[in-house]
Amino acid sequence: MKLIILGPPGAGKGTQAQKICDDFNAVQISTGDILRAEVSNNTELGKKAQSYMDKGELVPDKIILGMMEKKLFGEEAPSGYILDGFPRTIPQAEGLTELYEEHKEELDAIILLDVDRQEIVRRLTARRVCKECNQVYNLEFMPPEEEGVCDECGGELIQRDDDKEETVLNRLDVYEEETSPLVDYYSKTGKLEKVDANGGPDEVYDNIKEVLESL
After folding, report:
1. Residue 185 in contact with residue 91, Cβ under 8 Å?
2. In terms of DSSP H, where are the helices of the chain?
């Protein structure tokens, strides 16, 4: 199973990707993890990426795509995977499509987690993080046993600035502007599968599983 998972902040991409991996013998692939590994291993691509990072610049798509090619089509490429957080832009999507064509492989599906804007705001503003151990809670889906106190270490639970309503709304605006064009791009391939992700994590996964089992 070779998938891309798309969706706005708060859609539950990470949670659902892990569930898919467990059931369908796949691995979750993050560009951030690949980038850190290439830099840590001091590879040629890693050195090139580091030169941009040292200047505070974004690593060019060409280098990122080179890393993705090595990961997805190299000797140690996994047989099943989920791309989480990539592609983010149309140029990245086009570059990825070219790689699949070059290596004569195909994606099975692009899963779009479709969530109402109001629901995302509700979820993210309900998130709390332990000030001491960084354990994450959600007042809606996974509340602490004692309000405001971490179950793991007893630390104080706080709401991060990223999870305040004004910031959440801004993040959603950025997503709509930068990432939602991918939905139009992948719709034209006939492989985009829109999944209702407004329910709880288990309900959403049931919806995803139904789609995947029908492929």
Report:
1. no
2. 13-24, 31-40, 44-54, 61-73, 90-102, 117-125, 165-178, 181-187, 201-213
Quick one: pLDDT at residue 212? 94
**Residue 122 designated active-site:** no
- CA separation for the pair 182, 106 (Å, rounded): 17
DSSP character at residue 161: G
Q: Which of 88, 122, 191, 209 is catalytic?
A: 88
Residue 127 bears catalytic tag: yes
Q: What is the pLDDT of residue 57?
A: 87
Q: Which amino acid type is present at position 18? A: Q
How many Å separate Cα 109 from the centre of its chain? 15
Q: In the annotation, is 117 catalytic?
A: no
Gap between the Cα atoms of 73 and 77, Å rounded: 5
User: Cβ distance 51 to 27 under 8 Å?
Assistant: no
User: What is the DSSP secondary-structure string of 81-97?
Assistant: EEEES---SHHHHHHHH
What tokens appear for 8 in the block?
Answer: 């706005």
pLDDT, mean of each 10-residue run, the chain (215 residues): 93 92 93 89 94 89 94 93 90 96 96 95 95 93 94 96 93 87 94 95 95 92
Q: Indicate if 70 belongs to the active site.
A: no
36 is catalytic: no
Q: Which of 2, 171, 194, 209 is catalytic?
A: 171
CATH 3.40.50.1010 for domain 2-26+78-115+177-213, yes or no, is no
